[in-house]
Amino acid sequence: MHPIRKKRLTIVLFLLVGLAIAVGLTTYALRQNINLFYDPTQISAGEAPVDVRIRAGGMVEEGSVLRDPDSLMVEFKVTDFNASVPVQYTGILPDLFAEGQGVVAMGRLDENGRFVADQVLAKHDENYMPPEVADALEKASKGQHKASGSAETVSY
Amino acid sequence: MAFDSFSAFMVMEGHGPYVWSCYAAFFLLMIGLMVWSLRRRKAAIEACRRGYEFQAGRNDQQAASASAASFNRVKVSQD
Amino acid sequence: MWQFFHKLGSPKWFFGISARLMPWLLAGGILLLMAGIVWGLAFAPKDYLQGNSYRIIFIHVPTAFLAQSVYVMMAVAAVVTLVWRMKLADVFVKSVAPVGLVLTFLSLFTGAVWGKPTWGTWWVWDARLTSMLILLFLYGGVIALDRAINDEKSAARAVSVLVLVGVVNIPIIQYSVEWWNTLHQPSTFKLTEKPSMPAEMWVPLLLSVLGLYLLFGWLACLRMQTEILLREQRTRWVKDYVLAGRG
């Protein structure tokens, strides 16, 4: 290669590497701000500030949803299977909200560690499947549960 | 076919407006981009052609006056 | 190899080869794109969770994917411009930037419309959405900078540097969903794993991605030809081409 071109190429490469390091360090330093939400483990460890508008995200714990019969108030627990945080919300929930589904709630953490939300967003994963397949999978997993349950009773 | 009828296809169980507005925007912008690019090319060719014709006209004029001048100069230089 | 490289730099050679390629790119692109979209819209099964709103994926993913890969191609061309001073590379960057802008806008728009029924919001400032918005501004910046500088050579260099500076945004877009907590879900297609959807969903998606790729190729050839005609109008071959086209 021509020496001048070689020199230009090295300059370009240095520019790119330098830039990548700078941006890498900046995003690393700002990682908590770039994270859209705190997960339940962080909240229960006290990493999230109290009475500041933040977001909390995780799975809606199975069997934790309590709907107030007279109003739109809902209470549920958000979990990451490590820790869980109680959430209180008044308003209309997105269509995709269900037990076992991901959510991101916006609101404030009160003194008692309860999260009072004013907005709840549904978060879904990258798995897409036809309804029949989903049904079949669910049946299969329930069948397995039953099978393992019965196996246990037999062994007892 | 995932839908029973054409109207079911349009409504998409209530999600119709979202789905169709996305596809409308997509086709509108993509076709617009294609038409615009084609027209730009045509306009560029037209502009080039006009430039050449203009230049050709000027060259003819210059050639006429230049030949006359050189004819004179030839005479002068020989003196 | 080097001979090919130099040939590639010749606008006349490119003009000839692109003219032969373009009909195939256009026909293949429209065919694949329409096949993917019709299959995805009418024949693919609905999603168990999102129902029919997920059908937006068949244009959301192709536009988002193309928006990023066009930028990567522009970055490669920018390196070629800066190091080898190849004219054609600069022509490429200048010609495809508006296409990239439209694709990025479309991916943001379709994403917002998809977000409303699924997440419950049009927009959220998470890392994926924000970095994609930055990509939109980068495309806009490239176009504006190119227009702002009159001298062709200094414009080419300034634009190339801007494109290269912006390329750090691409891995951020790509990995944002894995590095940070975002509302946006991780990628459906990954290089190393099987797609996280059944074949009757990912095959049409793949078709429309390929179709849009070919269509982009056609658009790029067309716009590059326009740019070359304007830049090289004083050369013999452009004159011959233009005057022959009239007859």
UniProtKB/TrEMBL annotation, chain A:
Keywords on record: Cell inner membrane, Cell membrane, Cytochrome c-type biogenesis, Heme, Iron, Membrane, Metal-binding, Signal-anchor, Transmembrane, Transmembrane helix
Annotated membrane topology: Single-pass type II membrane protein
Topological domain spans for side Extracellular: 30-156
Pfam families referenced in this protein's UniProt entry, alphabetically: CcmE (PF03100)
Record GO biological process: cytochrome complex assembly; protein-heme linkage
Residue numbers spanned by region Disordered: 137-156
GO CC terms, sorted: plasma membrane
HAMAP family: CcmE (MF_01959)
Family stated for the protein in its record: Belongs to the CcmE/CycJ family.
Function of the molecule: Heme chaperone required for the biogenesis of c-type cytochromes. Transiently binds heme delivered by CcmC and transfers the heme to apo-cytochromes in a process facilitated by CcmF and CcmH.
Name by which UniProt lists this protein: Cytochrome c-type biogenesis protein CcmE
Organism, scientific name: Marinobacter maroccanus
Automatic annotation (TrEMBL), chain B:
Location, primary (coarse class): membrane
Record has Transport as a keyword: yes
Domain of life: Bacteria
Keyword S-adenosyl-L-methionine: no
BP terms from Gene Ontology: cytochrome c biosynthetic process; cytochrome complex assembly; heme transport
Any one GO cellular component localisation term in the record: plasma membrane
Pfam families, per the entry: CcmD
Location(s) in or outside the cell: Cell inner membrane
Protein topology in the membrane: Single-pass membrane protein
Spans through the membrane: 18-36
Family: Belongs to the CcmD/CycX/HelD family.
Protein name in UniProt: Heme exporter protein D
Species assigned in the record: Marinobacter maroccanus
Record gene name: ccmD
From TrEMBL, chain C:
Topological relation to the membrane, as annotated: Multi-pass membrane protein
Compartments it resides in: Cell inner membrane; Membrane
GO cellular component, one term: plasma membrane
Superkingdom of origin: Bacteria
Keywords: Cell inner membrane, Cell membrane, Cytochrome c-type biogenesis, Membrane, Transmembrane, Transmembrane helix, Transport
Location of the Cytochrome c assembly protein domain: 14-184
UniProt keyword Acetylation present: no
GO biological-process terms attached to the record: cytochrome complex assembly
GO molecular function: heme binding; heme transmembrane transporter activity
Membrane-traversing stretches: 21-44, 56-84, 96-115, 127-146, 158-177, 201-222
Matching InterPro entries: Cyt_c_assembly, Cyt_c_biogenesis_CcmC, Cyt_c_biogenesis_CcsA/CcmC
Protein family (similarity comment): Belongs to the CcmC/CycZ/HelC family.
Function: Required for the export of heme to the periplasm for the biogenesis of c-type cytochromes.
Protein name, per record: Heme exporter protein C
